[in-house]
Design goal:
Blueprint lengths: L2 H9 L1 H5 L3 H4 L9 H8 L8 H6 L2 H9 L11 H6 L7 E6 L6 H4 L8 E5 L8 H10 L4 E7 L9 H11 L16 H14 L5 H5 L1 E6 L6 E3 L2
Parallel strand pairs: 1-2, 1-3, 3-4
Antiparallel strand pairs: 4-5
């Protein structure tokens, strides 16, 4: 494990629990050991193992792809889809890239019901151009910005990532550079809504149709942030 990762997990062990105490008060987890903390952030499935995950490579994924050609159902082209009367999604869901959290699962999305954009922390800033592109090309009616409890962005600090980046590229980032660390979950959602609504290139109608939410990983419920 990289030393900086071990260090910020130890330094922020309390911050992982405190912001979400209401939703995880029934859980007792020790974060004094980095491996324990990582296991809490990325729990293994019954079919996975630490060894297999640590040894997985891009070449492994390419081999999987080559081994399953007969299972592949051809995807229709845009022209073919339009000819069938296919209507593209009109909703954009912006969520965290956390491997435990998938909007298709907790929103029970059917195939092609929404565009799902995933970023670290579920932050909207990296998605602004994508939102405008989808709106201009297809037409978007609503946007959901979803952050979640026990997010990894509650664990690290921006200065830790800045230190990491400057370690191999001195002076590449300054103290104003943000890497999406979250201190207050609800306020983070509000801040992202403000960022979206402050953008000069997003339509007013779409800004007005943007709402923020928090997904509770324990209850499975999505709650609006006012």
């Amino acid at each position: 494990m990289p030393r900086f990762l071990s260090r910020f997990i130890r330094n922020r062990k309390d911050s992982l629990v405190a912001p979400v105490a209401a939703s995880v008060s029934s859980s007792t987890v020790s974060y004094s050991d980095p491996k324990t903390a990582l296991a809490a952030v990325i729990p293994l499935s019954s079919t996975a193992s630490t060894k297999s995950l640590s040894q997985l490579t891009v070449e492994n994924l390419l081999e999987r792809n080559k081994s399953r050609p007969k299972d592949w159902a051809a995807i229709p082209t845009l022209t073919e889809a339009a000819a069938t009367g296919f209507i593209p999604p009109r909703i954009i869901v912006i969520s965290c890239c956390d491997v435990r959290v998938h909007p298709k699962e907790f929103l029970y999305l059917e195939h092609a019901e929404a565009f799902v954009l995933e970023t670290v922390g579920g932050h909207v800033a990296p998605c602004i151009n994508d939102i405008v592109t989808l709106d201009g090309f297809i037409g978007v009616r609503e946007i959901m910005i979803i952050h979640h409890t026990d997010c990894g962005a509650l664990v690290y600090k921006d200065e830790t990532i800045r230190e990491f980046a400057n370690g191999y590229s001195p002076g590449s980032v300054d103290e104003t550079t943000s890497f999406g660390a979250i201190e207050d979950l609800e306020q983070s959602v509000r801040d992202d809504i403000t960022i979206l609504k402050s953008s000069a290139i997003i339509r007013k109608e779409l800004k007005d149709a943007t709402r923020g939410f928090i997904f509770d990983i324990k209850t499975g419920l999505v709650s609006a942030v006012e």
